[in-house]
Write a structure and sequence with these properties.
Pfam families: AA_permease_2
Helix content: over 70%
Strand content: under 5%
CATH topology: Amino acid/polyamine transporter I
Subcellular location: Cell membrane
Number of domains: 1
Protein name: APC family permease
CATH superfamily: Amino acid/polyamine transporter I
Shape: globular
Keywords: Cell membrane, Membrane, Transmembrane, Transmembrane helix
Order of helices and strands: HHHHHHHHHHHHHHHHHH
Organism: Pseudoclavibacter terrae
Radius of gyration: 20 Å
Largest sheet: none
Length: 412
């Protein structure tokens, strides 16, 4: 029997802090340059589109979380609302998308810490270190995540102030005709969608907050307002300071804003590394646990469901995700890796929106049009992602489908 008491219950401010810290991971430090490569001077329009799609997805997911509070996220919701195959596609999309996110976060940490020739080895070293910690059961707590998020916000505000006082050494490059390209803007939106990674954490707080029907929507709204405002100001500053010509070519754009101040550059490098590594740890844990849940239901090999008797860590699942991320670090650049990540996660949220559309009236808390907008947005952004990222993601989805069919056939 539960007493209803306990320290796990948090209010709107606590839930908002967790949401903001979860959303401010590696994306804010890495997504602007590849997005600008696609969208050019229309970067802020891409950001607005990504925000609308992300917000619609989060609303649908929050609605589902209140009806299905168990672990598993959209993998569970898809199975319950649409059937086993949609649930599998959601879970597989999450696993492969977040595996790519792990790679992108390691690449981002390395990009801010060392020069380009050393980036891949350092990214692999970061991945190995975090994976080793994950094997021991060391994960980022909500309190630590909140502290990191607060430090990141303060640091980024400081960067904006320094950038206005001391313009970059090399100035801006405005060699961009800014001709509107719908495809370029949508590609940029798909890439910037990665910058909102983590907002699912807000939508799955139902069991951790007081009065979830009020607290979760409020925390979600506040998180989006804070993060989207910060991203919009950063996007404007990057375009205005570096220019649409230089921004796409800058591997560490936030540091470039303060390149005339060595101390500030060092601080940004540490900030980006800490933020990326913290997010990497959380994403590695989340994606491996989804793989574990899929292994339990035989949607993936059963070995992935095995947990260490002392730490309860699914070591095979952690190792599988880490190996996939290592492969992406070795063969992909940041634009393609982020695009691959967005493809997997957008399919995951497509299933969320479709699942939300099937909920009965008593379980609905947002208009059906929000879920329709989210579903259309997910499809639109997926099909307009960079071709190599899209083709690679489709190939990996096909591998997952074939593997599941083989597993089912083996069981007879």
């Amino acid at each position: 029997m539960t007493t209803g008491a306990g320290p796990k219950k948090i209010g709107t401010l606590g839930a908002t802090a967790i949401g903001v810290s979860a959303m401010l991971g590696a994306g804010v430090f890495s997504a602007f340059a590849p997005a600008a490569q696609a969208a050019g001077g229309w970067l802020l329009l891409s950001l607005a589109i990504a925000l609308v799609v992300a917000a619609s997805n989060a609303a649908s997911t929050a609605q589902l979380a209140r009806q299905h509070p168990g672990a598993g996220g959209v993998y569970l919701y898809g199975r319950e609302q649409l059937g086993e195959w949609p649930g599998f596609l959601a879970g597989w999309g999450f696993v492969i998308g977040k595996t790519a996110s792990v790679a992108a976060m390691a690449i981002t940490a390395a990009a801010y810490l060392v020069p380009e020739p050393f980036a891949r080895p350092v990214a692999l070293a970061v991945l190995v270190a975090v994976t080793a910690a994950g094997m021991l059961g060391i994960t980022r707590t909500a309190a630590v995540a909140t502290v990191i998020g607060s430090v990141v916000i303060a640091g980024l505000i400081g960067v904006l102030i320094v950038a206005q006082v001391s313009p970059p050494l090399f100035g801006s490059s405005n060699e961009d005709d800014s001709v509107f390209s719908a495809l370029g803007v949508l590609q940029g939106a798909g890439i910037l969608f990665f910058a909102f990674a983590g907002y699912a954490r807000v939508a799955t707080l139902s069991e951790e907050v007081r009065d979830p029907r009020r607290t979760v929507p409020r925390a979600m709204l506040l998180s989006f307002v804070i993060v989207s405002s910060l991203l919009a100001v950063l996007g404007w500053a990057l375009l205005n300071t570096l220019g649409p010509g230089r921004l796409p070519l800058t591997p560490a754009p936030i540091a470039a804003l303060v390149e005339t101040q060595p101390v500030a550059v060092a601080a940004v490098s540490v900030l980006a590394a800490v933020s990326s590594i913290g997010a990497l740890s959380a994403v590695l844990a989340g994606s491996s646990r989804t793989a574990m849940a899929m292994g339990r239901r035989r949607d993936l090999p059963a070995a992935l469901a095995q947990q260490h008797p002392l730490t309860a860590v699914p070591r095979a699942a952690v190792l599988a995700v880490a190996l996939g991320a290592a492969l992406l670090i070795c063969v992909g650049d940041i634009r393609e890796v982020i695009g691959f990540s967005s493809a997997g996660v957008l399919v995951y949220y497509l299933i969320a929106n479709l699942s939300a559309l099937t909920q009965a009236r008593e379980h609905r808390s947002v208009p059906r049009g929000v879920s329709v907008l989210g579903a259309v947005g997910c499809v639109t952004l997926v099909v307009t992602l960079p071709p190599l990222a899209l083709v690679s993601a489709l190939a990996v989805f096909l591998v997952g489908v074939v593997a599941r069919l083989a597993l089912r056939a083996r069981r007879g």
